[in-house]
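agent> fetching stored inputs for the modified acarbose pentasaccharide docking request
agent> found them:
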Amino acid sequence: MFYELFLRSFADGNGDGIGDLKGATAKLDYLKELGMEGIWLLPIMSSPSYHGYTVTDFYDVNSVYGDIKELRHFLAEAHKRNLKVILDLPLNHTSTNHEWFLRALNGEKPYLHWYLWLENKSWLQARRPWDKQKVWTPINDTFYYSLFGPGSPDLNYESDSLWQEGRRILTFWLSLGFDGFRFDAAKHIFDFSRESGNCEYLHDKNIEFWADMVTHSKKINPGAVFVSEVWDDWETVENYSSTFGIGFNFPLSYVVKEAIEEKSATKFVKGFRGTMPHYFDDARSFESGIFLTNHDMTRLVTSVGGNHSLALFAMSVLVGVPGLPFLFYGEELGMEGTYNELFNEEQLEPFPWYESGFGPGQTEWKAVDKNRPNTGRSYETQKSRKDSFFSNYKRIVAFRRDHPWIRCARVETLYEESGCVHMTLKSETRQMTLVYNFSDAPVWAECRGKIVNLVGSAHGSDNRVLLEPWTSVALK
Ligand code: ACG
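agent> prediction call returned; pasting tokens
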């Protein structure tokens, strides 16, 4: 299970209120104790933005987060605790303040060819596929292509010298000790067609690029972990995943949340079959990176209307599903926050270590609105309460940690009955049946085996068990 860590909000090691590597190093025991096996570190390279996805130097750490020496120490300490660390690498674009872009504006080669410049006025009608935003930004007497907005000019990997630079960047971070990468915006490397003058995902060219980057990386670290961010329908996600080894399963994250929202076990069964087909047998060419939410989405508790039982039920589903699970920082405390384009970063608020909202190591980089002090949401308050959201969340995570075989299991049977999902997982040596009551009504279910109650409450007798609403059990 990997922890999606946003350094800026996690823990502050130098008293400037901004989370950093030193602060995060001091919290590695916390992550180990939580039951994590790895960390997905959101971008840490030099950047003018709070999110770090617009880079000004691919070969250095953002000075607010620390320096290369502190990064090496963080990685060494993580490895001492058997925690892998993968780095979020946004290779699709840079900041407008990257030296390459500034030199390109001066017409310097090869940097001029490392970006996309308007060649035909008709291209200006191109729009971003999902929200029809403009994708060309005017500057001086020309335009540059910037799919993610004016602050992020796209890099042009038609240029061989840039392609080689991409390899050098991977070599640099792997040599520092990272265990792999989360490749940002993987379907966007080639996403503009000169022929049509429109935004078009050139999937084959993208996959060719990533195959080269992954092959290059494996020469440096054969055991490296690569996760692709392809936020699209299942067919598209599947198309990319085998090149990386692990692909984030966005469609599954919607299936779980929508099935809960619609109180529909049937929706889950149908949706699961459609988004996890590679787990119904043993011959699979990639794993799913499974998750409920990430930094681009509304937080889990907020997405289920603030209902802690439903949020914990969702977590109990996640830990019962094969694949590699990813947890977004703060979900373990039931942090809230709605994602919206207004850049209010509600879903990225400081991790509340203290009930008062303040204390050694607390990050204060932005005002807190959705996870206020003195509301019982802090780690300090929840860690010692057996019935806290945190204690329940940790118990659910521990279930997955104690059954690592689930990651590579296959789904032997999956069906809906009386509003419950029955899922049997199998590996060479293990088998387990999970029963989830996706309804507001108590349901009797035929259950053979030792009952482990994940969430909610179940009362067993002989081979039948009564599952209260939103209860999940494992039968071993
Ligand atoms: C990554 C990072 C994100 C970052 C960037 C840019 C990329 O996680 O934090 O933004 O470096 C698109 C891209 C993703 C991108 C998100 C933000 N995420 O593909 O790579 O935007 C549809 C589209 C997706 C689109 C998504 C956005 O298909 O392509 O993601 O909408 O909401 C169903 C459909 C599915 C659809 C969803 C949602 O699931 O099947 O296709 O997805 O519904 O409608 C960062 C900052 C930004 C900043 C940028 C420069 O976060 O604020 O602007 O950097």
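agent> quick read of the result: The chain has a mean pLDDT of 97.
agent> awaiting further instructions
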